[in-house]
Amino acid sequence: MAFVKVCKSGEVTPGSAKSFQIGDRDVAVCNVDGKLYAVDDLCSHDFGSLEQGEVEGYEIECPRHGARFDVRTGKATMPPAILPIDTFEVRTEGDDIEVEV
């Protein structure tokens, strides 16, 4: 596994998520009060993108059916999703945000 630069530090604002393609995966970087988390950008319920979902506290909501996931652990916290999603390490190197995939 290696860290891959996905964007500059100001591109993911607090309370939002932004999706990036890393290899064959889409990864959503979420900003929770300035702390960055990365999760699979794929709802485990219907495989829709999470990027446009609301980030509230440590959860991201799937905009299609309301399933929610903890961005720290990937755990499904609200049905209809019951399976977790993958999480990834995030680091900031200078002005760059990098995700380990």
Topology:
Layout: E1 3-8, E2 17-22, E3 25-32, E4 35-40, E5 55-56, E6 59-61, E7 68-70, E8 76-78, E9 87-88, E10 90-93, E11 96-100
How would you describe this protein?
With 101 residues, this protein is mostly beta strands. The chain has a single domain, classed as Rieske Iron-sulfur Protein. The chain contains no helices and 11 strands. It has strands spanning 3-8, 17-22, 25-32, 35-40, 55-56, 59-61, 68-70, 76-78, 87-88, 90-93, 96-100. The strands form 3 sheets. Strands 2-3-4-9 form a 4-stranded antiparallel sheet, with no helix packed on it. A 4-stranded antiparallel sheet has the order 5-6-7-8, with no helix packed on it. A 3-stranded antiparallel sheet has the order 1-11-10, with no helix packed on it. The chain starts with a strand and ends with a strand. The model has no long low-confidence stretch (mean pLDDT 96).
Offer a concise description of the structure:
The chain has 101 residues and is mainly β.
C-alpha end-to-end distance: 5 Å
Residue share in helix: under 10%
Radius of gyration: 12 Å
Largest beta sheet, briefly?
A: 4 strands, antiparallel
The CATH architecture? 3-layer Sandwich
CATH superfamily: Rieske [2Fe-2S] iron-sulphur domain
Enumerate the strands of the largest sheet in spatial order, edge to edge or round the barrel: 2-3-4-9
CATH domain fold name: Rieske Iron-sulfur Protein
What general form does the structure show? globular
Percentage of residues in DSSP E strands: over 45%
Which series of helices and strands comes N to C?
EEEEEEEEEEE
Per DSSP E runs of 2 or more residues, the count of β-strands stands at 11
Structural class: mainly beta
